[in-house]
Amino acid sequence: MAAPSLTPGNILVIKLGAFGDFVQALGPMAAIRAHHRDAQITLLTTAPFITLARESGYFDDIWIDTRPSLKDIRGLLSLRRRLRSGGFKRVYDLQNNDRTTLYLWLTGLTGRTRPEWVGAGFGASHRNTAPERIAGHAFDGHVQTLALAGIHNVTVDRLDWVRADAAHFGLPHPFILLVPGSAPNHPEKRWPAEFYGALARHLYGWGYIPVVVGTLQEDEAGKVIRRACPEAINLCGQTSMMDLVALARHAAGAIGNDTGPMHLIAPTGCPVTVLFSGHTDPVRHGPKGARVRIVQKDILSSLSPDEFIKQISARDFRHKGAVAEN
Predict the structure, then answer these.
(1) Which fold, 10-148?
(2) 168-325 and 10-148 share a CATH fold
(3) Nearest to residue 263, comparing CAs of 280, 248, 279?
(4) 168-325 belongs to which CATH class?
(5) Where are the chain's structural domains?
(6) 223-257 b/e with 16+ CB inside 10 Å = b?
(7) Residue 85: CB atoms within 10 Å
(8) What share of the chain is helix, strand, coil (3-state, %, to 5)?
(9) Are 14 and 44 in contact (CB under 8 A)?
(10) pLDDT digits (tens, 9 = 90+) for 272-323
């Protein structure tokens, strides 16, 4: 039997970033929507996540947070007016940082004037201060926090609501996605493109077509991989977030760095292998999905292609290539 819905009213959900954290928050967002079936739910987020939020169908309205600084008094007063004019009965803080604790106080100075607040900030009506909240994945912390508000059965969002179709790419099967990029300010998260090239040759020898995905900034990496393996297909700069989900549904697997697209690929059930450097903790920041495998080395450039290839096999993927079956 479904849990009873809270009395209809206005609900605010706050999730500002980052990319992987936002994707991991989609399951909790779905649970909030199910719990408040008849409510008007607004999301406060940042511009990069508008498409995901809108396509999910979990929200009736989406507000963009310009994140005014403490020196921007006019911006803070404008945000305060907006938060208070929303008439929110409850706020779910899925960001839980100093900024959103400030937003808690902007909604009202006392418990009588502010809405119920579910989160970790001081003054929250449903406050989660357990150290376990930040010991693992953000998703697991959300599960724990939402339970305080009577929301249970929170699951990883498999992104089944994404309606994109990968057929227009005309890819041969079976194919494996390669994700050689990362945020520009984190080069330590990148396994060298030349190494991905050697991996692509090996995968092609197993009977898989390597398909490189990423932003336009990763196009050079895609070209490096194609020089090493001309049979590889370079789609860098040609895919939207929705396209990545559609491709993942049909891919035999995916191999990539610790980067946002891997968080979109993993929940679909696509078998993924993610390369982590020593700069990031995969226990806290690894993608969520049914088949996620982590390979970690302190300095990724010291992980040779041969060393990595020894850790994988054709059986790690959903389909065996023709050569792999021989």
Answers:
(1) Rossmann fold (3.40.50)
(2) yes
(3) 248
(4) alpha beta
(5) 10-148, 168-325
(6) ebbbebbeebbbbbeebebbbbbbbbbbbbbbbbb
(7) 8
(8) 40, 15, 40
(9) yes
(10) 999 999 999 999 899 999 999 999 999 999 999 999 999 998 888 987 544 4
